[in-house]
Amino acid sequence: MKDKQTIFSQFVMTLIVFLTAGMSACTNEELNHTLGNYLGNGSTIAKLDQNNNSTNPSGNATVSRPNSGHVTNNPRSNIHGNTALGPSCGTGKSNSICLGIKYIVYANSYGQGIVNQQEAFQNLEGINRVWSQCGIAFQIDQYLVANAQDYRLRYNPQEYDELNDIRRTFSDDVTLLVVTTGKWMGNLDGPANAWTNMPGEIVYGAVMESVVATFPNIIAHELGHYMNLDHNYSDTTNLMTQVIADNSVNLNQGQCQVARDGIQNYWQRMLRS
Ligand SMILES: [Zn+2]
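Above: the input record for the complex with zinc ion. Below: its predicted structure, written as tokens.
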């Protein structure tokens, strides 16, 4: 079974359009990945190229900077990840679900995160707006700027296997993992911009490249896969459509139930109250 890829013949979306090529419900572990593809307009690409250009050609990014490397800005975070770095989503209401995220961003050549903390919270706001339809919310327990080299990882990943290396490096069993790397190159260079391992994989985590770093819909989409949702091929306004646009934000009750079940079955330790 081969990953199904959808090809655009026309580019009709206004601002940003993501083409996701993934798999439908498939039990083959190897195929239990979700692939987000990116198509964007010039302005977005130009903006993101600035990020890309900040990596020097040698890939020798972010050395000898005091704030490079693995820095947590939240000393209150503990190993259980129960303390939100920013807004907490725990309301104590019985019908609301709150999950903790570990938000890793690679450091660029200036020692700055590809996504700064404020941008991470802006993403979070967008993600939570979408997922509020299901009574599900997220909080950032940890925001870490990571110098990839410190972890023997490449700022610009080139192979699919590296994505699991990234997951193994940063994942734990108490937070959902979201990682933003530099631009993908080599065998990862192409339309794909994000991969999320679905439940059933050996190691978990959503990994995306810098070009989609500030588009919350794709992160919300990847979190949908994280919670065991497959693609919706019939409704382009659905969050889980293979084509993710600015208006791809809807979730139906069936999807909400799948996500809730996914959380109960796989991510109870990520729950916050
Ligand atoms: Zn997808």
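Notes for the reader.
Residues 121 and 198 are 24 Å apart (CA to CA).
Helices lie at 42-53, 117-131, 160-170, 216-226, 253-266.
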